[in-house]
Write a structure and sequence with these properties.
- The protein is of the alpha+beta class and 367 residues long.
- It has helices spanning 48-56, 102-106, 116-126, 142-154, 172-189, 200-206, 224-229, 234-239, and strands at 8-19, 22-33, 37-41, 63-68, 71-75, 78-79, 87-90, 160-164, 193-197, 209-214, 217-222, 244-257, 260-276, 281-285, 291-298, 303-309, 314-319, 330-337, 339-343, 363-364.
- The strands form four sheets. It has a six-stranded mixed β-sheet with strand order 7-8-9-3-10-11, sandwiched between helices. Strands 14, 15, 16, 17, 18 and 20 form a six-stranded mixed β-sheet that branches. Strands 2-1-4-5-6 form a five-stranded antiparallel β-sheet, with helices on one face.
- A hairpin with a 4-residue loop joins strand 15 (291-298) and strand 16.
Length: 367
């Protein structure tokens, strides 16, 4: 028997919002399944924080609908105020009350009925701050303050927790540890969460689903691995991760380029841009290779090796830490991974299909 799918905790349908002549959101839609974490990922000014404010009820959309836990909270004839939406908010700057200690901050939004103290204690234990319950906010580190802010948002058992750039004020070493802690806390609490970030690594490593936003539109919603490996178009591909863009001549289900002949999934005739990740390019020393190593950027666990082809093409290949030929060494670059193909409309190929190439045919996977 097929297990029943989890319910939809949050649905945003056709949200639009303008501020004067500026369009902040343009028909943005996405769903969030109960108990999952969604990242709203995009560059500054793409509408991420506006979306969060609309969900929380801090602003009203010009059009569209918001459904929380099966109830419409925003629609043509409905606008539920923020305090009745049961939404938890975690702000970029923590927004703790400076005159209240940790336990008072966490319990601020809770009813004073029986069970309040127990719920505060339970939530502080969840975030690992039981021993600091009587501390004041100024006595805490940035990471500890963010945990208090998360505990305060989780304590009332909200329908959805909204986090606005929650790690941006932390240094790099603390940020990674806190990401893992926040993910664990959200998992253990069973919370549904939406967080805003412009940091791709943060979104891909923390979220169950990623919604890529550009210019006020949600262009793709998918699991992190799918966003990375199968972006739906140029705009998402240009934003997510790093690609080499290699021009070639489309001759049907193959593209002839400096890597050889690359197989693609859809037939294309004309000038084609192949998007190839550095890790999909295999590099080796070879006196008869297509190009020369220009430089290496060493990161410890791996490195980016920059190669200039004799044709003038420049690519970056991701190699292991033991690949150490110096700049000036001739090298061979071969495709050994995923490739995306985009046809340039109205542009004739610069190289005639079937022209001779020095390298053998490259091994490409369907785009």
């Amino acid at each position: 028997m097929t297990p029943e799918a989890p319910p939809i905790a949050l649905r945003c349908d056709g949200l639009s919002k303008t501020y004067g002549a500026a369009t902040a959101l343009d028909d943005a839609s996405f769903d969030v399944t109960a108990g999952t974490i969604l990242a709203l990922l995009g560059p500054s000014g793409c509408g991420k924080t506006t979306t969060l404010r609309l969900i929380a009820g801090l602003d009203r959309p010009d059009a569209g609908m918001i459904v929380l836990g099966g109830s419409v909270v925003q629609g043509p004839d409905v606008s539920v105020p923020p305090e009745r939406r049961r939404v938890g908010l975690v702000f970029q700057d923590y927004a703790l009350f400076p005159h209240l200690d940790v336990q008072a901050n966490v319990g601020f939004g809770l009813s004073r009925r029986n069970g309040r103290a127990a719920r505060v204690a339970e939530t502080l234990e969840l975030v690992g701050l039981s021993a600091l319950a009587s501390r004041m906010p100024h006595e805490l580190s940035g990471g500890q303050q963010q945990r208090v802010a998360l505990a305060r948002a989780l304590a009332p058992k909200p329908r959805v927790v909204l986090l606005d750039e929650p790690f941006s004020n932390l240094d790099a070493s603390l940020r990674n540890d806190l990401r893992n802690d926040v993910r664990r806390v959200l998992r253990e609490s069973g919370a549904t969460a939406v967080f805003v970030t412009h940091d791709q690594e943060e979104a891909l490593s923390l979220a169950d689903q990623v919604a890529v936003m550009i210019d006020g539109r949600v262009l793709q919603v998918a699991p992190p691995h799918e966003i990375y490996r199968q972006p739906v178009g140029r705009a998402v591909a240009d934003f997510i991760g790093q690609f080499n863009v290699i021009e070639g001549a489309g001759i049907g289900r193959a593209v002839v380029c400096d890597l050889g002949t690359v197989t693609i999934s859809e037939p294309m005739i004309g000038t084609v841009d192949l998007y190839v990740r550095p890790e999909a390019l295999q590099i080796s020393e070879d006196p008869s290779g297509q190009g020369v190593i220009e430089s290496r950027r060493f990161f410890g666990h791996d490195q980016l090796v920059r190669v200039r082809f004799d044709s003038g093409l420049i690519v970056e290949c991701r190699a292991g830490p033991t690949f150490l030929p110096p700049p000036g060494t001739r090298a061979r670059v071969q495709l050994d991974g995923d490739v995306l193909a985009f046809l340039r409309a109205g542009v004739a190929p610069r190289r005639q299909p079937g022209a001779a190439f020095a390298p053998p045919a490259a091994r490409g996977r369907p785009a």
